[in-house]
Amino acid sequence: MAASREPLDVAVSRIDAGSTVAAGLALEHSIPFAVGHELLRQGVNDLSVIGPISDLLFDQLIGDGAVSEVRAAWVGNVSAGTGYRFRDAVESGEVTVENHSNFSIALALEAGAMGVPYLPTRSLLGSDIFEQSDQFVETADPFEGEQIALVPAIEPDWAIVHAQRASPHGDVHLWGNTGIVEPAVGAAENVLVTAEEIVDPDVIKSDPSRVAITREQVTSVVECPFGAHPSPVAGHYNRDNEYYLRYNRQTETESGFEDWASKWVYGVADRDEYATLVDADLEITSPTVAAEVQYGQ
Amino acid sequence: MASDRYTDRELMVTTAAREIEDGDTAFVGMRLPLIAFQVAVSTHAPDAMAVYESGVVRDSPADGFIHTMCDLPNLDRAVATTDMIDIMSRLQRGDIDVGFLGGAEVDRYGNLNTTRVNGEGEDIRLPGSGGACDIACMAERTVLLMPHEPRRFAEEVTYVTSPGYADDGNGRNNHPAPGGGPSALVTSKATFGFDERGELYLRSVHPGADVTDVLAAFPWEVRTAEDVGEGVVETTPEPTDEELELVRTFDPDGFWT
């Protein structure tokens, strides 16, 4: 079944309060900030957010009160360190945290994607991520006897991915590093894809090796240029590092965060209006053009 | 600052770079190691490779400043842009020679904490592990980097985010983590090694730093290279002109250094 091609607000309205949502899956690359801001505008709350590292996105959702639980390896601001809204919310008990390593969250989603209840790893043992958690199990490898940790599957309600281009059917070209996009998409019940551009299906079919997601996995596909700012998107725009630094300075206090949100989230109707507020030169000045690839019959 | 020729962090970068051997595959994370790998591969380690948990694999410096591993100059002309399961699987099967780790706290066995610390009776939440726990557990060796501040050196870390050695004197022998454990701690004042029991010892002090002053920052009596039969405490080599020029090419505004 093909995905539904629809506007951002319609796609986001499918995400219910209380959902488990995996996002920020390509690490610092191509973070779906446009979806995050639309979630806030629609007042979707009580979310359980799932990811490897979260560079600002979870901090913004938490700061606006949309999150009750975080299942992640790292939450902060990669340019500046601390995510103050995350830190305050954890210290006050407003959100609970299930601490992961990057590999344990990757394996949990990979298990979900594979349809198996858990996957084993040689990581975690000896750490307090393992010791101070009841989610993992230590066991002896039944074949060789080595002590290993078992990571249970996570199957999110939603995975959210921002990509370079997609067909109206929901087949997706994604390039640059992909982090845990693939396992999260495989594990999730629903997938929302935003893309810099919607292209003719022939464009996608001209290069099937670049397809990261196929239509039957995708619930909604949305054309959303600049949908990952301030994070970078290969082939489209650079990281807006000054934005990360300003956000860090501005959101140390709750009232500072509210000022930020009133401008960047509630002060705009949609992503097009958001883009008019950005005053930074993020253009790719000397693009690398990949060598032509031929398929054939 | 100990020198008018370079900053403390520039010296940390060049010292960290020298921990990468030619031919190594290095697991590079956030901040200073982003610069250190680029210096190493441009000088003494032209055949080194870097992997980043986002999925980037590189054999050369980025053509442009990088704030993060996913900045476009780090993706451009990469050897590969793959995914996390791929990179972490290389780590898990023992293919990563050296990994870099930072920390808010470290203890004498190289256990690192980046999850939460206790400040004046209250827990302070930190960002967390990222890939640090995985690197600490499974890399052949790890290099730890942190500012030389007394609050960072703890008898016992508040939370073991990234395991070092066991406290039983057997290093990693009876420890559940399969990797080799920490091989060095580079601070803004000195470089430390870990002896065969897995305990921290002072290897060298940076130019201008004083041994007594360096050791006074620790709540336990830190042993020195002499104490553990590893020669004498040396002076850390200063960055060469070539290394400094490279650091300033890769970090032109001194954002990280």
From TrEMBL, chain A:
<protein>
    <submittedName>
        <fullName>CoA transferase subunit A</fullName>
    </submittedName>
</protein>
<dbReference type="InterPro" id="IPR037171">
    <property type="entry name" value="NagB/RpiA_transferase-like"/>
</dbReference>
<keyword id="KW-0808">Transferase</keyword>
<dbReference type="InterPro" id="IPR004165">
    <property type="entry name" value="CoA_trans_fam_I"/>
</dbReference>
<dbReference type="Pfam" id="PF01144">
    <property type="entry name" value="CoA_trans"/>
</dbReference>
<dbReference type="GO" id="GO:0008410">
    <property type="term" value="F:CoA-transferase activity"/>
</dbReference>
UniProtKB/TrEMBL annotation, chain B:
<dbReference type="Pfam" id="PF01144">
    <property type="entry name" value="CoA_trans"/>
</dbReference>
<dbReference type="GO" id="GO:0008410">
    <property type="term" value="F:CoA-transferase activity"/>
</dbReference>
<keyword id="KW-0808">Transferase</keyword>
<dbReference type="InterPro" id="IPR004165">
    <property type="entry name" value="CoA_trans_fam_I"/>
</dbReference>
<dbReference type="InterPro" id="IPR037171">
    <property type="entry name" value="NagB/RpiA_transferase-like"/>
</dbReference>
<feature type="region of interest" description="Disordered">
    <location>
        <begin position="164"/>
        <end position="184"/>
    </location>
</feature>
<protein>
    <submittedName>
        <fullName>CoA transferase</fullName>
    </submittedName>
</protein>
